[in-house]
Amino acid sequence: MSNKTKRPEWAPEEGGNGFACRVMDGVEGGHDGISSYTGTGSQKPANRYRRVQLSAENYADGVLNGNRAILGRAITLVESNAMAHVDLAQDVLKILLPHTGKSMRVGITGVPGVGKSTFIEALGCYLLERGHRVAVLAVDPSSIISGGSILGDKTRMELLGRDERCFIRPSPAGGTLGGVARKTRETMLVCEAAGFDVILVETVGVGQSEVAVRSMVDFFLLLMLAGAGDELQGIKKGIMELADALVINKADGNNKIFAQTARNEYERALHYLQPATEGWVSHAYTCSAAKKQGIDNIWNVIEKFRAITTKSGVFEKNRRNQNVKWVHEMIGEHLRSLFAKHPEVIKILSDIEEAVADGTMPAVAAVQQLIDVFEGKRYMDGKQTRV
Ligand SMILES: Nc1nc2c(ncn2[C@@H]2O[C@H](COP(=O)(O)OP(=O)(O)OP(=O)(O)O)[C@@H](O)[C@H]2O)c(=O)[nH]1
Ligand SMILES: [Mg+2]
Question: Are residues 297 and 358 in the same domain?
Fold first, then answer.
């Protein structure tokens, strides 16, 4: 065994021979142990089985040439939180940026079970038939807590998942919603550079995630059910106001008539709401994702939206605003994390929280004291003493 073991690559250089850990030498070739070397020469290339480190240019070339393996690795790089990866990912994005922005970005939301995955499968297949290349991404707030993710159930996207012209990426897991949204946004750019011209972003219609997705897409679509009642669907007026289209799904069988009635009611409700996009009037529609009915009509609506807003300049204006807003969001996120990690803030935070909860300290004074401490000002007996 001893001659098959070696020092691990991650062992510290300064560890010398005193570093006790040894690892087994890897098998050559694939995981089945069969050599992948097919050449006839006597000289085998060295280290064939070790993953080659890619430079920013290698990543960018691979993505631009539509190499799926490199596309997957580039997205993993973009999703990584490791400092070394963040810098490399930004270098890759800088090269890719001129090749991005040419897709139609569509956000899809709705409560669990409304049929988002089934709808994306139906719309995605329809688009592939029409010669489009489709990327499906997700922003899943539950992945932040549980590490799980929507789109884990690829069963609902069986056909799409198998098609070479489609790329499906589950929600990045972990971190804050802002962090997850950043990764999805950057993944979207990488997919655009790889030639995907329709990006579908799925999110669950509960909480803040739809606001995050709304701010990264051109067209936002809210899927709904007939007869479920607004309260049951957790749909608040605020979310309806974000939508460029309301689509009542499951308009098939006995449910068709109820779907039609619901459509008429939502159409009336939309009349009283602020439009989500300047110069565009949002309407309600019906479809059956399972029966693939009404899907073409919805794509026509999206294309009409694109034509109208491109002509008026709103399409471009919204994207520019989204980019600038994104910068501010990232600054906010960064400062918040610096604040939360600040050792002096950590020391006094729980006492201050308790004082505010007990009503012995006003909230504004609490904020002032915390910010002063964060900015390096010191407090003695509740009074600022030194800057
Ligand atoms: N009758 C009918 N059933 C549908 C339709 N679309 C989806 N369903 C069914 O509704 C159920 C939920 O569909 P999904 O596509 O998984 O719903 P989802 O919104 O992605 O759900 P989550 O991923 O849990 O948020 C499944 O059993 C589907 O077969 C439809 O148009 N008609
Ligand atoms: Mg789903």
Answer: no
Question: What are the phi and psi torsion angles at 47 (to 5°)?
Answer: 55, 40
| Location of structure tokens 């790329």 | 167
User: What atom of ligand 1 comes closest to residue 114's alpha carbon?
Assistant: 19
Is residue 257 a part of any domain in this protein?
Answer: yes
The predicted structure's pLDDT at residue 161: 80
State residue 102's pLDDT score: 94
Q: Do 353 and 295 fall into the same domain?
A: no
Q: Which of 109, 111, 118 to mutate to test the pocket of ligand 1 (most atoms within 8 A of CB)?
A: 118
Q: Sign of torsion, CA 63 69 73 75?
A: positive
Q: Residue 82 falls within a domain, yes or no?
A: no
Write the pLDDT tens digit of every residue in 156-165. 677 888 888 8
The ligand 1 atom nearest the CA atom of 150: 23
* Residues within 6 Å of ligand 1 by CB: 110, 112-118, 150, 156, 204, 249-250, 252, 288-290
Integer angstrom CA distances of residue 291 from 125, 132, 144, 168, 283 = 13, 21, 33, 22, 22
Residue 116 CA to ligand 2 center (angstroms) comes to 5
Q: How far is residue 240 from each of residues 219, 299, 314, measured CA to CA in Å?
A: 13, 19, 20
pLDDT at 1: 42
Alpha helices for 38-82 (secondary structure H) = 56-64, 68-79
Domain identity same for 238 and 364:
no
Number of domains in the chain: 2
| Predicted pLDDT of residue 64 | 97
- The per-residue pLDDT for 52 is 79
Q: Residue ranges of the chain with pLDDT lower than 70?
A: 1-50, 142-156, 174, 205-207, 228-236, 378-387
Q: Compute the distance from residue 250 Cα to the ligand 1 centre, in Å.
A: 8
* The pLDDT value given to residue 2: 44
Q: Which of 264, 271, 262, 207 is nearest to 241 (CA)?
A: 271
C-alpha 369: how far from its chain's center?
36
In whole angstroms, what is the distance from residue 257 CA to residue 55 CA?
A: 57
